[in-house]
């Protein structure tokens, strides 16, 4: 069994989270520049066994897709061409950034640390991955 990787895709940065090899625990991995995401994934996959990825589905309160969705679809298309053996799943990412900000504020981090967007992105990816794991277990 390998890991599951989550991507909170953004125009500038992507937050990443991964499970352990038993797919039990979701942990924040890091934040990478969106332009370097393909290179990061190639290197990561060469060093880790990844069974599947889950990419956040950005919707608003009414269920409408965010404008970033077109960029996400291009990323997924390129990903599937390069890594056809790794299935891609989508999961609604509504409120993950707000939840991440709340969890960070409760963690005792300084105000400056709490406002670091990269930290919010990788915590959001962790929340997406944890929600995905919970859905898989049901």
Q: Gist?
A:
The protein is 44% helix and 25% strand.
Order of helices and strands: EEEHEHEHHH
User: Unreliable runs, pLDDT <50, ≥5 residues?
Assistant: none
Strand line-up across the major sheet? 3-2-1-4-5
Please state roughly what percent of the residues sit in beta strands, choosing from under 5%, 5-15%, 15-25%, 25-35%, 35-45% or over 45%.
Answer: 15-25%
- The global form is globular
CATH homology-level superfamily: YqgF/RNase H-like domain
Tell me the Rg in angstroms.
14 Å
Mean pLDDT: 87
Using DSSP, what is the number of strands?
A: 5
Oligomer: single chain
Helix content: 40-55%
For the largest beta-sheet, the strand count, sense and barrel status come to: 5 strands, mixed
> What is the number of independent domains?
1
Query: Which CATH class is shown?
Result: Alpha Beta
- What is the helix tally? 5
Question: What would you call the structural class?
Answer: alpha/beta
**Amino-to-carboxy terminus distance:** 19 Å
CATH fold name: Nucleotidyltransferase, domain 5
Just name the CATH architecture: 2-Layer Sandwich
What's the topology here?
Elements: E1 3-8, E2 13-19, E3 26-33, H1 37-47, E4 50-57, H2 69-82, E5 88-92, H3 96-106, H4 111-114, H5 117-137
Parallel strand pairs: 1-4, 4-5
Antiparallel strand pairs: 1-2, 2-3
């Amino acid at each position: 069994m390998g890991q599951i990787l989550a991507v909170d895709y953004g125009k500038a940065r992507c937050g990443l989270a991964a499970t352990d090899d038993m797919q039990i625990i979701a942990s924040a991995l890091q934040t990478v520049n969106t332009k370097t995401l393909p290179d990061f994934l190639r290197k990561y996959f060469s060093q880790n066994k990844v069974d599947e990825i889950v990419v956040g589905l950005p919707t608003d309160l009414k269920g409408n897709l965010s404008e970033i969705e077109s960029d996400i679809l291009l990323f997924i298309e390129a990903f599937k061409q390069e890594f056809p053996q790794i299935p891609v799943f989508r999961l609604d990412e509504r409120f993950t950034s707000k939840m991440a900000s709340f969890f960070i504020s409760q963690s005792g981090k300084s105000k400056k640390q709490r406002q670091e967007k990269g930290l919010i992105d990788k915590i959001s990816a962790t929340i997406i991955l944890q929600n995905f794991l919970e859905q898989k277990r049901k």
